[in-house]
Specification:
Layout lengths: L13 E10 L6 E10 L6 E10 L2 E10 L1 E3 L4 E3 L2 E4 L2 E7 L4 E10 L4 E2 L4 H5 L5 E18 L2 E2 L6 E9 L5 E10 L5 E9 L1 E2 L2 E2 L3 E8 L2 E6 L7 E4 L3 E8 L2 E8 L6 E6 L5 E18 L2 E5 L5 E7 L14
Antiparallel strand pairs: 1-2, 1-13, 2-3, 3-4, 5-6, 6-7, 7-8, 8-9, 9-11, 10-11, 11-12, 11-13, 14-15, 14-26, 15-18, 16-17, 18-19, 20-21, 21-22, 22-24, 23-24, 24-25, 24-26
Length: 319
Amino acid sequence: MQLRFPDVPSARPHYERVYCAVVHPAEPEALWIRTTVKKRPGHEPAGALWVTWFSPAGVRATKVDDLPVSPGGLGIDCGPASQGPAGSRGSVESEGLSAQWDLTFTPRVRSLEHLRSQILYRVPLPRTKATSPVPDLGVGGTLVVDDKPVDLSGWTGMLGHNWGTEHAARWIWLRACGLGDDGSGWLDAVLGRVRMGPVLAPWTAFGALEFDGTRHNLGGLLTRGTSVVVSERAADIGLTGPGVSVSVRAEVSPARTVGWEYADPGGHRHEVVNCSVADISLVVNRGGSRVTLHPSRRGVLEIGGDRRAFDVPLQPFSD
């Protein structure tokens, strides 16, 4: 995992995230940790730590701003937290959430570069670059939430990394795991709509589906067949790739969905909803066969844009 912000010229806007999501093998429990860097032109990089705990009782969340940030032993050091492909450790103490974690990650598959072409990682567009250095991993170590130890036996997760100059006008992050007969399959996809003057471009998707030992690339700049329909508590998403098409249904509970405010380095504001314990099902067509997959674990549905996709309150933290 290569951090970009240390080499960004001072006059250039930049944001960067390293984040992990880890999930219980059966219950609607998940931990989402996001370490971020935001650099406004002419300013030093500033870090922020975002932590959300999803449980059957609902959502607990907190954020700590104005933290020192630098490359570290795990990947990125951000105030009291550090995380990267080998693990995540840190702590937060607030009225919203108390948590201490020292997690070890065991990668199970090779990394995923959503854009696939190295040229797209070097040119200005798209303005957000996405990778998953560890798209599927095993979890060990310790986690304490509100002074209660959490048994991490059987937990899995992922580690993501993205960066850029500004967010898409609208975006979706979709992840499912526990696919296939052996439960080792996963889906990781990002979708975006960019604004071209007064017009929003159609949805473009980048990602991959892996199950039964085969990885299928999904989306791309010239790929047709991407579709998105968002309703009151769900999203229906169509993805295509060479020799494969995937229909995804992601359903959320508002009580288990968190709302955040994101801002670009230039100050443009976005409203984001994230449910890391979404119920997801997939219908996959490949090679003339059709299979319906119901993941053994809950997944992630994140939607961002000018307004909230679901009627959930925003956390009381500006960005």
